[in-house]
Amino acid sequence: MSGVRSSTLLVLVFCTAEILSMAGFALVPSLLPRLSHDWSLSATAAGWLGGVYFLGYILAVPLLVSLTDRVDARRIHLACAALNGLALTGFALLADGFVAALGWWWLAGLALAGTYMPGLKALTDRLPAAAQSRGTAFYTATFGVGVGLSYLWIELAQRHLAWPVLFALAAACAALSVLLIWFAVAPAASAPSLRSHATHWRLVLGDRRILAFCGAYFGHNWELFGFRAWLVACLVWSHDRSPDSWTSMPGVVAAVATFLAVPASILGNEGAHRWGRGRWLRTVMPLSCMLALVVAGLSDRPGHVLVPLLLVYAASMNLDSAALTAGLVSETAGDRRGTALALYSAVGFAGGCIGPLAFGIALDTFGRVDPAGWAAGFASLAFGVGLGRWAIGRNSETTSSAKR
Fold it and tell me: Which residues are the signal sequence here (predicted)?
């Protein structure tokens, strides 16, 4: 019983630190309409600003996460949580235009590479094997809690505070996450594998199951982060076109949409346990793709129609999230799990970089104030998750895996 209590407390600590470190996650998506106006950004430039966060992530994650196979992941998590605070402070004080904003927001994305998956590695390294799958599900679902709270507090605060102050407050939360892990989680002795770093990468790159999970995560993040980057802007456009109480507070809608990721992600992992991971993923990913196309077709409807549909879609796109990550963790040997997570994160968040950009290009191509532009943007999300479904289906060993 004491082991159960200690495992629960450990999960709670890491989940709380994750929420604190992600307080600034929604700053650029939430402020994108204001920043676009202030800096006269095109939709493509705004898409770059939304996606550069994930570019920083994917450039750093192969090194930072694979390093956790050789050193305690807690050390990496602490250093990058501090770097996150520095990047947010730099944005608050020095971002006076598009180029400077790109640099600081890129650095914040790089910091996420050293907190999100290294945090998961630090957690699972300290959990007994029987608790790892559900611990992973709760940790990955907490990502949605962090994003949702980020949207919510920014929506409520931006009406009263200048945007640099919002970045400074998020930097303070990042500092609190450093203190929490520093004092609540004891260092662990590193137990490096006898295999070389290059051998780890060869084994991971040669494992078709791992590659299938990576490809599916690419499609998932293309859809998810493309949706999150443009959701507030879509609701602002909808409200300007046809004022509606449902779209009058877009940040609150974005927060609710993100909070729905939490039960959807946890239930998705339980569904994978019950019906088999492969069968579950082959079902829920096409469902999400279909709903993206429905939203594309109805994106010009008034808020009382559009918002409930967006919320259903937001929940559906998270039914695969924890099932994918828990599947990768459970099917990878512990001594190379960090390297597998590094590849998984790099490939997956490449989708997170491309998704917002593809949406922005679609808007510029078909018209930012035209319903056809927003329909094309949501169709680009369907294309992304469709790629993920194709990737997971390429590996019969993964898609026919037993219940886990």
Answer: none
